[in-house]
Amino acid sequence: MSDNAQLIEEMRWQLKQIEDRKAENQRLLAGIAGGNHTTVVSPDRSVTVLAGPGGVVSEVRLAPEAMRFDAVTLSRTITAAIRDAVAAGGRLAQQSQPPQPQSPRPQPPPPPRRRPTSADDDEPYDTVFDV
Fold it and tell me: What ranges does the record list as Pro residues composition bias (predicted)?
């Protein structure tokens, strides 16, 4: 009987984990759909595309009227709306980017290191080995 009780507790724990992940996913999706997004509607209002910063398409909606189009017309309408949404999302990302911090000035390279000369050195100083 204790094995059944343990199994039930394990299943309750797993269900809680699933519910927590579901709540987190819904929170993330609400953030995606909520802020800093742009909506593009096709001229005939049959296709709506939602895109976020950087032009990431998060949703494509078709109105019931869109199903009356032939496949070629519908695909062209969807493609055009997606292109417009991606471009608008790209502009949105450029507008919302914080200013980039300036990188520090590069340090000047250290002076070249010379091999110490000794009085016993009988080779000339300016050879290819004296780097």
Answer: 98-111
